[in-house]
């Protein structure tokens, strides 16, 4: 009924949320790694620590940067070079300076964090951007420690946030699409926490039921009270495939507004079961199809009046749709309808 239903957008949006949550969890672990390591590990053996650090550099799991606070880069691993798009030859040639590949608007923030780190020795992780060699900007999460008597030498850890930011952008884009759909297309969104008997409706959904924003009661019983009683039984019947989430439930039904006017809705709901395969929650989208139903009824009545008129007409009347081949050429006609007068003229029985 829709080219791409809002239900699909919601499902994609939920998947994006899960991916973003996973990335945020990874970032949080990186942010707390230093403190947790310091509190749980015994004093490191210098030789073992050096070997482990070299292994970390070579693993390229995360970008590592050895530099000073003025912009000079002394060493970096391949992961960092991949983030900014420069080669090791560029590094050896000394043409890469971290302050020159940092957009100008980020430099005041850099100065602030450097000042804090000089006071305590460590810069708490923060987000910034680098300018890639091809000119595009790369979002990163960076944290570092300052070494030396004056705390001017740095070892920095850099995580590329490009994937997370793209997922967030898609999420925001889809959110805007859904808002626009609700605003312009009479579309409503709902989330039903089945085991809690709690329904959450968007303002668009409340409008489909003739309610002011925030006035829906938020329970299953409140929804039931607004459905036309002749349609309620069909809506409450669910197939096994619908209950375990394999297929969405689809329905057309009537609702009664507070002013007692009747309106038609088309709804799709996707049920998500819990670990015991019992319905846990449902995501739904509904659209107003009242105008469509009114047009269908008007057409039905018009056809009925036309047929009745032809039944009593003294004039002959025949409906003979054309049959055409794959090239669009007329090859035959089919008898679709003849009125009683025509049947008599043709001496044919009227079926």
Describe this structure in words.
The protein is of the alpha+beta class. Helix content is 43%, strand content 26%. The strands form 4 sheets. A 5-stranded antiparallel beta sheet has the order 2-1-5-4-3, sandwiched between helices. α1 runs antiparallel to α6. The longest helix has 35 residues. The chain is elongated and about 110 Å long. 18% of the residues are buried.
- Element order, helices and strands? HHEEHHHEEEHEEHHHHEEEHEEEEH
Distance between the termini: 35 Å
Level-2 CATH architecture of the largest domain: 2-Layer Sandwich
In which range does the helix fraction lie? 40-55%
Major sheet strand order: 2-1-5-4-3
> How many domain units?
3
Question: In terms of topology, how is this protein built?
Answer:
Elements: H1 6-40, H2 46-59, E1 63-68, E2 73-76, H3 78-84, H4 88-93, H5 107-120, E3 122-131, E4 137-147, E5 153-160, H6 162-185, E6 187-193, E7 198-201, H7 203-208, H8 220-224, H9 229-236, H10 240-243, E8 249-256, E9 262-273, E10 279-288, H11 290-312, E11 318-319, E12 322-324, E13 330-333, E14 337-338, H12 340-345
Antiparallel strand pairs: 1-2, 1-5, 3-4, 4-5, 6-7, 6-10, 8-9, 9-10, 11-14, 12-13
Helix pairs in contact: 1-6
Short description:
The chain is an alpha+beta fold and 351 residues long. The protein has helices spanning 6-40, 46-59, 78-84, 88-93, 107-120, 162-185, 203-208, 220-224, 229-236, 240-243, 290-312, 340-345, and strands at residues 63-68, 73-76, 122-131, 137-147, 153-160, 187-193, 198-201, 249-256, 262-273, 279-288, 318-319, 322-324, 330-333, 337-338.
């Amino acid at each position: 009924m829709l080219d791409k239903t809002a239900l699909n957008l919601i499902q994609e949006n939920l998947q994006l949320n899960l991916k973003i949550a996973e990335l945020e969890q990874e970032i949080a672990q990186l942010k707390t790694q230093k403190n947790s390591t310091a509190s749980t590990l015994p004093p490191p053996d210098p030789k073992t620590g050096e070997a482990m650090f070299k292994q970390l550099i070579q693993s390229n799991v995360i970008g590592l940067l050895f530099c000073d606070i003025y912009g000079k880069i002394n060493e970096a691993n391949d992961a960092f070079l991949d983030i900014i798009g420069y080669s090791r030859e560029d590094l050896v040639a000394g043409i890469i300076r971290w302050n020159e590949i940092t957009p100008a608007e980020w430099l005041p923030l850099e100065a602030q964090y450097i000042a804090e780190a000089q006071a305590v020795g460590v810069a708490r992780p923060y987000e910034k951007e680098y300018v890639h060699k091809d000119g595009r900007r790369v979002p990163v999460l960076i944290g570092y420690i300052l070494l030396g008597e004056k705390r001017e030498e740095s070892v920095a850890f850099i995580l590329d946030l490009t994937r997370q930011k793209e997922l967030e952008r898609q999420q925001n884009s889809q959110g805007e699409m859904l808002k626009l759909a609700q605003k312009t297309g009479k579309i409503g969104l709902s989330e039903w926490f089945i085991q809690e008997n709690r329904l959450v409706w968007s303002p668009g959904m409340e409008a489909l039921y003739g309610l002011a924003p925030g006035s829906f009661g938020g329970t299953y019983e409140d929804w039931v009270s607004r459905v036309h009683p002749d349609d309620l039984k069909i809506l409450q019947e669910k197939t096994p495939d619908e209950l375990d989430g394999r297929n969405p439930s689809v329905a057309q039904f009537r609702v009664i507004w507070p002013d007692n006017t009747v309106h038609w809705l088309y709804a799709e709901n996707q049920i998500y079961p819990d670990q015991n395969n019992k319905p846990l929650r449902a995501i739904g989208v509904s659209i107003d199809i009242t105008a469509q139903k009114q047009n269908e009824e008007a057409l039905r009545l018009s056809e009925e009046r036309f047929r009745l008129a032809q039944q009593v007409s003294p004039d002959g009347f025949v409906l003979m749709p054309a049959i055409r081949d794959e090239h669009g050429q007329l090859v035959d006609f089919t008898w679709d309808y003849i009125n009683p007068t025509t049947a008599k003229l043709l001496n044919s029985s009227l079926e």
